[in-house]
Design brief:
- The structure is a homodimer.
- The two termini of chain A are 24 Å apart.
- In chain A, α1 crosses α3 and α2 crosses α3.
- A two-stranded antiparallel sheet of chain A has the order 1-2.
- By secondary structure, chain A is mainly alpha-helical.
- Helix content of chain A is 44%, strand content 6%.
- Chain A folds into two domains: 63 residues, Winged helix-like DNA-binding domain superfamily/Winged helix DNA-binding domain (Arc Repressor Mutant, subunit A, Orthogonal Bundle); 62 residues, no CATH class.
- In chain A, β1 and β2 form a beta hairpin.
- Chains A and B meet through α1 and α5 of A and α1 and α5 of B.
- Chain A binds a DNA duplex through α3.
DNA sequence: AATAAGTCTATCAAATTAGTAGGATAATAT
DNA sequence: ATATTATCCTACTAATTTGATAGACTTATT
């Protein structure tokens, strides 16, 4: 399951995507409209900024805004950033791979099955962007 | 990601599925061969028994064994039992549904997307069984 | 200089995960 | 009967993760 943090991140990103031509948006504004705890949201947005998805401006008239066009930010990328692996097993993850101890990957049928699940999920998540989150 | 408990459960179930015509298998045997902490495995197997997947016999000649044919036990069912929801969001889960607070499901595009991911995953996991875990 | 906003670091409580301990119960063998 | 074998059960603990908060700091604007 996606963490609450991830859900907040998507809500905030969707909100920013809807307003991506209107200049910076206040954290407090997002927090209020999307009912996300302010300080928690601060941390999340900062993280997304450091990851290159958002940018910000300080002082009056400042706030957060998308650094790229919503259609350029993949949902899979956001999940990996905020939530971690998409795969169901470490031995099957593309970005967070870890060898399975005491298990031969070549002959593990669970491995194969989880590769299938991963690919089915990625087929969707790699082809959807923040643009698809806008109503 | 699947918990270690889930991974252990699948290893144990695969082991039992391979030996489903050979009578009861000792917990200690599974623990040793699959390198699963003994006491942890005890708890897991007991849980699977209570869920109706396994049965057991006490005393000499006892042990655990599959209650049904391996081809009758769906992978999706085991995941839900041991790991919990398969869906990425509570508002999209079939067996662990929870309403999304402060979010209108009808107009939430993330919701739609996660329904797609869920169905893509279930399409695989509901159609694979313990039999598919045997080499 | 005052104000408005994001930045940073640290901390905290609750929940979850992974694993352990040890006795209780039941089936079998002698 | 009783000793042995093996599962059953309840509780506990340690480590990690998650969700959230506090407060001082920095930077931009007026």
């Amino acid at each position: 399951m996606l963490s609450k943090k991830s859900q907040y991140a998507f809500k905030a990103l969707a909100y920013l995507a809807e307003r991506c031509d209107e200049g910076p948006v206040l954290i407090a504004d997002i927090s209020k409209k999307k009912k996300i705890p302010l300080k928690f949201l601060e941390n999340i947005l900062l993280e997304l900024k450091k990851a290159g998805i958002l940018d910000s401006k300080k002082g009056k008239g400042g706030g957060y805004f998308l650094k790229k066009d919503p259609s350029k930010v993949k949902v899979a990328h956001v999940i990996r950033l905020v939530n971690g692996p998409i795969a169901m097993l470490p031995c099957v993850s593309l970005y967070f791979y870890e060898r399975c101890k005491d298990c031969n990957e070549k002959s593990c049928r669970l491995h194969d099955m989880m590769v299938e699940v991963r690919d089915a999920s990625l087929n969707i998540l790699e082809n959807r962007t923040l643009k698809d989150l806008i109503n």
